[in-house]
Design brief:
four-stranded antiparallel sheet; 4 strands; alpha+beta
């Protein structure tokens, strides 16, 4: 430091601190988004695989669920082929409910979304779709 020249370390510290905070916020948001990615959940991967198979005309995998009707038949009523989007889900104790939107029809938009709720059970670490119902069930994200 030379006499007569002002030292401006305060501004540098503020800028460095602001950049550090922005980096931390960006990192936290990235991790939050990735942690909430449905593709990372075994439950959502099982639902995706099931709906992709059924929605492209494939045979639905048999599930070991007592006394249930074939969920694929209900899902195919509006049309044999469909696309899907997972809306929300809740799981606990080897059971789960997943709200999905199905789109029937040709082309990228594939028509309006039709809401369904899927009930699943986990047997031997594998999620299986047991039933489907029209509409979504209310899922409290804070439960």
């Amino acid at each position: 430091m030379y006499a007569g020249r002002p030292v401006r370390t305060g501004r540098a510290v503020v800028v460095a601190g602001a950049l550090l905070m922005l980096s931390a916020v960006a990192f936290g948001v990235t991790e939050l988004v990735r942690a909430g990615d449905p593709g990372r959940s075994p439950l959502h991967r099982a639902v995706d695989a099931y709906l992709e198979t059924v929605g492209t005309g494939g045979s639905a995998p048999a599930a070991a669920c007592a006394g249930t009707t074939d969920p694929a038949a209900l899902l195919r009523r509006p049309g044999a082929r469909f696309g899907h989007r997972i809306v929300s889900s809740i799981e606990g104790g080897g059971q789960a409910t997943v709200n999905v939107d199905l789109t029937h029809g040709p082309g990228p938009g594939r028509g309006p979304a039709v809401a369904y709720s899927l009930d699943l059970v986990r047997t031997g670490g594998v999620w299986q779709v047991c039933s489907a119902s029209p509409g979504h069930v209310e899922i409290d994200p804070f439960d």
